[in-house]
Amino acid sequence: MVKRLISANTSEVLSMNGEDLKQSIKASEGRVLLSENVVMHQSGDGITTSEKAAAFGADMILLNALDVFNPVILGLYDGEEDINTAKPHNDAIKRLKKLVGRPIGVNLEPVDSEADMSEDLRVIPEGRMASEKTLIKAESLGMNFVCLTGNPGTGVTNSQIAANIKIAKKCFSGLIIAGKMHGAGVNEPVVSIESTQEFLDAGADVILVPAVGTVPELDDSDLKPIVKLAHSAGALVMSTIGTSQEGSGARYMENIAIRNKVIGVDIQHVGDAAWNCQSPFENIYALSKAIRGERHAIQRMSRSINR
Questions:
Q1: Is 250 part of any domain?
Q2: Is the pLDDT of residue 277 over 60?
Q3: Which residues pair with 33 in a beta bridge?
Q4: Which helix (H) or strand (E) holds 81?
Q5: Which among 1, 21, 106, 109 is most buried, taking Cβ atoms within 10 Å?
Q6: How many domains does the chain have?
């Protein structure tokens, strides 16, 4: 058996495979916090956004806007704190793990060329799209998990997510998270029982859903059956704040945290849009404290990565 993630040391966390990480999250009983960070914006002060998120209590780090074929993370190397001077490094994820002591994952976007768009399509590089090539590259970079989801306007559909889960099961050994935080510019339901079942059938380890309070008309009664369905199939659930509301203040974060914990999610995600690179740090702490209390919030912040 593995130790629960909220109490695990870095040496224990980074030795976990995908199945170990899944069990470690499950054992934490709804108290795991994941921070999503944009890698291509100014980090400031010569360090990465991920180091800051970890310092304020994040248990898992999700990298957004990372091109896996050209892995650039601002602030990871001395003198590379600006997009004009930073270079791709194939050991970037190995170095980031050493600095933050957390499981590291990446967003890969299952773009659908036939998507019925509700807004202008935002074209992204091949290295950010979900495909067999990018999933194999994510494996070689040392990612602990992948998140198959869509940024605003990228044309990601639920059917394409399901197709890429199947591909990931064949060529990626880490945890597979899948689902939509918002519409991603497409005319379709963001989340449904039908799409959830499709993701489960394809082999997703974690079902991603919008947090209650982030997407219009999505309430507790909509999400509860999805959580129960995922859990009955042996999968976990991650609620997400991916609508810039990660910058709405501590009171909002605390309210969201409790509502979604009552629903039964296993991981609570806090997005990256409030500062265009990550959530305000005090909001990460507010969410952390709400879902697990001050004791666990502070021990996660304090636990040395050298343990």
A1: yes
A2: no
A3: 268
A4: none
A5: 106
A6: 1
